[in-house]
Amino acid sequence: MIFQGAFLPRLSTAEKHSRCNGSAMIPDYLTFIRFQDKRNLLFIYIVTLILLGFYGKNSGFSFTREDAWCVSGILALVLYAFIADLRAYWAYKCVVKNVDLSCFLDEERKERLRFLFAPFTVLAGAALLFCGLTWVLFSLVAPGVALVAVAMVAPLLIWGIFALLRPVYIRQVIVSARDTIKYRRITGYLAVAVVMSVMMNLLTIAPLGKRAEFDFYGQYFTLKAIITMLILCAVVLAINLLFLRFTKRYIFLGHLFLNEIDLHFSQALPWRSLYVKPLWLRLAILLVVEFAWLVLVGLVVTLAGGALWFEAYFLLCYAPCLAYYALHARWKWHHDFMMSCDMCLRWDEIKRQNALW
Fold this sequence. Notes:
- By secondary structure, this protein is an all-alpha fold.
- It is built from 12 helices and no strands.
- It is globular, with a radius of gyration of 23 Å.
């Protein structure tokens, strides 16, 4: 339900505070993060509580130790969403110089064990950390109380890891050679985000497979199964699309400054004829396609006479919605990338003019 870098702020609270005071002074690093962290911590709590709330609702608020794996996975993915593009965000901040980072300039400029702080490495380590925390709590107290304790403690841990990684990534930006293309095309970047979104979806809806209402064995080709899965797919897609509303223009600008992407990163819009249609019409078309797809899936599975794991059945049913999600993200991020390119070219022109003076 979330994608990488979704929650990095569009405009920092420190910048807003400075502008509201009518001051042209650039905030120092500590002042900036003091204001930013207040919003970050609140936002981490909101996102974590929403996702754990969905998980609790899907499980009927009945928890066991087996839920520790899914809960820890959800928490680790929330952390990943906050740090995936953190280097790019601070590259943007470093280049435009709207935060005073002079406190990092006097430090020894060496990169040590960079792979240990890579987002995917942190994701794996965080999953183990949260799994251990959840298992301990489930062993000490009742499962319901344990989940509440996890919901209260885990956001603090996510914020703490985020705060510890931030200066590490800033130092990496300062010493970066800026000569390596990380993503040659937006499809690679999009693929990672879609995989992370699918993982979050599966972890969140996993408890539904244990409920009698979602046991469709031998009843896949029934109106009840079709309508139930149609509603579930619509709810999951709606939440995913909601998180896509966050802009990535500053993230892409940071990637451009780091030379991790170039101006050919996204060259054209796919399915332009569908893109020009209003959103309500696109969703209406998707609803018809999804319903027809569910009928077809139910018929094929029933004729095959087999039983599917709930997660596999959900992925099969969700395929049209997932395709639309990827397409919608592609359109949104293409637009954001075009704005990033414009900002990057304008910044290069400003630097040239300043050099003449």
